[in-house]
Design a protein that fits this description.
- The complex is a heterodimer.
- Chain A is an alpha+beta fold.
- Chain A has 14 helices and five strands.
- Chain A has helices spanning about 1-15, 20-30, 40-65, 85-90, 95-105, 110-130, 130-135, 140, 160-190, 195-250, 255-280, 285-300, 325-345, 380-390, and strands spanning about 305-310, 350-355, 360-365, 395, 405-410.
- In chain A, a hairpin with a 6-residue loop joins strand 4 (about 395) and strand 5.
- The longest helix of chain A has about 60 residues, at about 195-250.
- The two termini of chain A are about 55 Å apart.
- Chain B folds into two domains: about 1-130, Rossmann fold (3-Layer(aba) Sandwich); about 140-215, Arc Repressor Mutant, subunit A.
- A six-stranded parallel beta sheet of chain B has the order 2-1-3-4-5-6, sandwiched between helices.
- The longest helix of chain B has 14 residues, at about 175-190.
- Chain B is globular, with a radius of gyration of 17 Å.
- The chains are: A alpha+beta, B alpha/beta.
Chain lengths: ~425, ~210
Amino acid sequence: MPRRLSLTLIAFVLTVVTMLGLVPWVLTTVSIPLFVVWVGMPMFIGAIALSRAWANAGRWVAGRISGQPVERPYRQVPKGTGFFGRIKMLITDPATWRDHLWILLACVPGFALVVLVVAMAATPLFYLVYPLLLAVTPPEIFSQPFGGLITLDHWVDGFWMWPIGAFWLGLWWLTTPGIMSAWAIMTRALLSPTRTAELQGRVSELSSSRAETRDSAAAELRRIERDLHDGVQVKLASLGMSLGLIEQLMETDPEKARTLLAEASASTSTTMQDLRAVVRGIHPPVLADRGLVGAVQALTLDLPITCSLTVDGLGGENGRLDPPVESCLYFGIAEALANVVKHSGASRAELSLVRHSTSVTATVVDNGRGGAEPGPGSGLAGIERRLRAFDGTLQLDSPIGGPTTLTLELPCEPSSPRITPSSARA
Amino acid sequence: MRALVAEDHTLLREGLIRLLELNEITVVEAVADEPSLRRALTRDDFDIAVLDNRLPPGGTDEGLRAAVDARTVRPTLPVMILSQYVEPLYARELLASEHGAVGYLLKDRVAKIADFIDAVRQVAAGGTVMDPDVVRRLMARGRGGLDTLTPRERETLELMATGRSNAAIAQQMVITEKAVDKHVASLFTKLGLAQSEDDNRRVLAVLAFLNQG
C-alpha cells in the first residue's frame, strides 16, 4: 500500500510538472535558428544546461521508481575547451538529443500514463462522496453520471456508485506499479547511457591506461638497462681487466698479483649486491617465495618506523592472488610506505590488507602531518598509474595535520566464500 | 666434521663440496632438490646442513622451509642457509626456536673461504651467524626496544649477530677483549638475559636484535 501511494504521489507531481519540460525544449529549438545572430549560442548552452537538469530530475525519479539509479550519459568536457568547442561537444553528444526526445515522449505517452494513475486513484474518492454530492447539489448536476444511461433521483441512490468506485480502486491497485514502471523503463531507455556510449567511455579509459602502462613499462626497462649498464657491466669489465693484469703479474710480481686478486674477489661481492638490487626492483624474490602477505610483512620489517599489519581473507591456501595483481599491489604498497617514511614525518603506520569478494584493498594509515597531494610526478601519481592498468583505484584522505589514509583497491577474481576470518599481525 | 649439502646448480654444488672437503669437512650427501633434501635431513650422521634457500621443483624458499620443518623435529639441528638474497623475516623464522645453531648468509660470502668455513664450524658448534646484510638492514631501521644500549654495546651486538667471537669483536672494534667482555655482560643484563650458558645467551641476544620493534 505505501508503495502504491508513493507511486501515485510521484504520478501526481509528474502530472503537474511534466509540461514544464517543454520550456528548455522550446528554448533549445528556438536558439538554433538564432545561431546566425550569435545570441543563439549562449542561449543554446543555457537551454542545454536546463534540459540536462530536467533530464537529471527525470533520471532521479526513474531511479526512485525502479530502485536502480539511472546513470548520466553525458560526455566529459575536457578542461580548457573553448566556447565553440563546448558548443560542438554539446551538439555532437547524442545524449543531448536523447534528452529532448525524452522530454517530448514524457509530455505525450508519459503524460498519459501518469494521468491515468492519478485518475484511477481519484475516481474511487469521487464515487465515495457521490451520495454527499447528490445531497448537497441541485439535482440536475450529478443525477446522470453516465450521460443519461441511468438517472439517480435520491441521494441514497448515490451508493449505487460505490461498486464502480471499488472496481476502479481495484484496477488502480493492480495496475499502478506496472504503469509507473513502464514510465521508468521509457525514461531509462532514453536517458541512461547507450551501450555505445558506455563502450566509448571504456575504450577511452582503456586507451589512456594502456598508454600509461606502455610508457611506464618502457621507462622501467630503460631504468633496468641503465642499472645493468652502469653497474654490473662496468664492474664485470673491470673485473676482466684485473684478471688479465693478474695473469701478467703472476710471474713478475706475485705480491702485487695477490693484492689485485683480493680486490677482484671483493669486486665480485659488490657486483652481486648491485645485481640483487636490480632483481629486487624487477620482482622481489620474497614476493615469489611467500606471495603478497609474506612480502608485505618483510616490507614492514624493513621500515624505519613501526608499522602494524592486519590481514583479512588472504591467509591460507586460497590466499594467493593472480601474480600480476600481487606484484602491482606490492609495489603500490611499497611506494605508499616509502612515501610515509619520506614525507609524512609519521612515527607509526598501520597497514591492512583485506580481500573482498571481487576486490582486494590495501589501506595505509599514518599519524604524520597530512596534507599529501597526488600531484603529477609524485609517488602517489605513480601508484595510481600502476593501479589503473588493473582497473584499480587510489583514494587519498589527508587533511592538514593528519592523519593520512591511503586506500588502494584492485579488482580480482571472486574468492570462494570465507568461513573463518584469518588475521596475522607483524 | 660431516656436512649435508643441498644446491641445485651443479657448478656451485661441486664447488661447495670441493671447498668443504679441502677444509676437512666430509660431505656425506649432496642433493639437488626439495624432496631429496627432506629425506636427507632425516639422516643422523651429519654435523651441519649447508642448504641453498631456493631449490627445485618449486623454485621459491624450499630450502628454508625444509630447514625450519626439520628443526621443529630436531630443534638443535645445525643449519646453514645460503641464498642469493637475504630477508630479516627469514632470519627471524630460522631463529624462532631459540636454539641457535643457525647460519644465514649470502651466497657470495662463500668466496671468502676462511670466513665461510669459520662460520660453518661456529654454526655446527651451536653458534648463530647472520649475514652482515641482515644486520645492516635491521640497523637502518634505527628504532625498537634496544634503545637502552650504548652505541658501543649496540655495535658489539651487531658483530655478535654476524657470528664473531669476543676476540674477533675486540679486533674489529679496536678495543681490548676485556672491554668486549664488559659490553657483552652489560648488554646481556639490559636485555634481561639471566646468567646461563654463554652460547645460548648469545643466541637470545641476537634474537632480541632481530625481533626489535
